[in-house]
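in:
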C-alpha cells in the first residue's frame, strides 16, 4: 500500500462518523473591536464526499489578512491536520508530526489528505464573495438577494442558510463542488475581528 493510500485510510478512520448534521446549541457568534474587518474565525462541521465514500469531521478556521490557519479535527475533536498558508507557501502538519510544504494549497492537500482544499478562494467564498483577481467569477443571487451560487476557479459554491453577525450577513451552510468532489461546510460559530475606529 502506498503511503498516500495508507494516510487516506487513516484519515477515513479518524474522520468516520455520521454524514448528517446533528442538532447543536444556538450559535454564540462574537464580534471584537470596531471599524474595518481585520480578520475572522469560524468553527463548524465538514463533510467530504467522493466516489469512494464520505468522511466527516470538524473544522476551525482563522484568517488574518493574507494568512490562513486551519485545524481539521475528527468528529470527537482530536486534531487530524493543521494547515498554515501565506502568499509564499502552504505548510501542512499531520497528527503524527509529519510535515509537508508546497506553493499550491490544492495540490498539497489533494496529495496528502486525499482531497483538494481551496485555501486561496475559501476566505472569500465562505463570506459569500468572489475572490479578487479572477474576472471569470460568476455570482448568482437568490430570491432573498444573498448569493445562491458562485462559480470561480473551477469550483461551484452553493449557499444555504444565512444569518446576521455584527452587521454582516454570513453563510451558515455552503457546499463546494468540483468534478466528483463535494465539500460541505456547516458553520456553528462566527467570530469577526475588527480594527480600531
Amino acid at each position: 500500500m502506498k503511503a498516500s493510500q495508507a494516510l487516506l485510510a487513516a484519515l477515513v478512520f479518524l474522520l468516520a462518523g455520521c454524514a448528517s448534521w446533528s442538532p447543536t446549541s444556538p450559535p454564540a457568534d462574537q464580534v471584537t473591536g470596531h471599524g474595518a474587518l481585520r480578520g475572522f474565525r469560524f468553527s463548524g462541521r465538514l463533510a467530504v464526499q467522493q466516489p469512494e465514500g464520505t468522511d466527516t469531521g470538524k473544522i476551525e478556521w482563522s484568517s488574518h489578512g493574507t494568512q490562513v490557519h486551519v485545524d481539521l479535527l475528527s468528529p470527537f475533536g482530536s486534531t487530524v491536520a493543521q494547515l498554515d498558508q501565506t502568499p509564499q507557501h502552504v505548510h501542512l502538519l499531520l497528527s503524527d508530526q509529519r510535515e509537508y510544504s508546497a506553493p499550491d494549497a490544492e495540490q498539497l492537500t489533494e496529495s496528502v489528505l486525499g482531497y483538494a482544499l481551496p485555501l486561496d478562494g475559501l476566505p472569500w467564498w465562505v463570506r459569500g464573495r468572489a475572490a479578487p483577481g479572477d474576472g471569470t467569477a460568476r455570482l448568482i443571487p437568490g430570491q432573498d438577494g444573498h448569493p445562491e451560487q458562485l462559480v470561480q476557479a473551477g469550483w461551484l459554491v452553493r449557499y444555504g442558510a444565512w444569518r446576521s453577525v455584527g452587521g454582516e450577513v454570513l453563510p451558515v451552510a455552503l457546499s463546494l463542488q468540483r468534478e466528483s468532489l463535494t465539500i460541505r461546510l456547516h458553520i456553528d460559530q462566527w467570530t469577526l475581528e475588527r480594527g480600531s475606529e
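note: The longest strand covers residues 37-50.
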